[in-house]
Amino acid sequence: MLNILLESLLKWFAPILVFTTDEVYSLINKGDKNIHEHSFVKVPKDWENKELNEKWDQLFKIKQEANIAIEEKRSSKEIGSSLEASVKLKVDQNKYNLLKNLDLAEYLITSKAEKELSKNEKIKIDVSKAKGNKCPRCWKILESKCIRCSDLI
Fold it and tell me: What residue ranges do the domains of the chain occupy?
């Protein structure tokens, strides 16, 4: 299983990290061909997880809608980048559960993001300018000191 993952990653990165991936590939596969002369690995069928795929499809759709709302604020010059945004998602119970263990601000690449339960099935996205000071390391705009970066600055 790990061999399949390693070989897949190496072949995906091969066009970018040409020499590095070829060197690692030559260490794990003793042969005359280099990594660029092979086809992609066939992923075993039993690795397919339709439930997980459906979850990430739904998460991707939510992110796309949030990106559209953020882009509207950017085009009207209310914010400069997505890290200047504070996002509030009003979602139904299913989407609320889907977002339960997800760091929304990280996923949406914003300074602040929160979810709120709504009875309406249609997602409502409110985007506003984040309040606070910009962290010099991660560039998030936070009302208090950045917990993640404070020890490193």
Answer: 2-46, 50-137
Cβ proximity of 71 and 108 under 8 Å: no
Radius of gyration of the chain (CA): 21
In the block, residue with structure tokens 């998030």: 140
Long-range contacts (CB closer than 8 Å, 24 or more residues apart) made by 52-55: 55/98
What's the predicted TM-score (pTM) here? Answer: 0.77
Q: What is the CATH number of domain 50-137?
A: 3.30.2320.20
Contacts of 3 (CB under 8 A, 6+ apart): 28
pLDDT in the model for residue 152 = 82
Confidence class for position 33, pLDDT limits 50, 70, 90? confident
Give the CA distances from residue 13 to residues 29, 38, 39, 41, 93, in Å, rounded to whole numbers and listed in that order.
17, 13, 13, 13, 39
Closest-CA residue to 111 (of 91, 134, 89): 134
Dist. CA 86–CA 77, nearest whole Å: 15
Identify the residue with better confidence: 32 or 110. 110
Q: Binning pLDDT at 50, 70 and 90, where does residue 116 land?
A: very high
Residue 19 pLDDT exceeds 80? yes
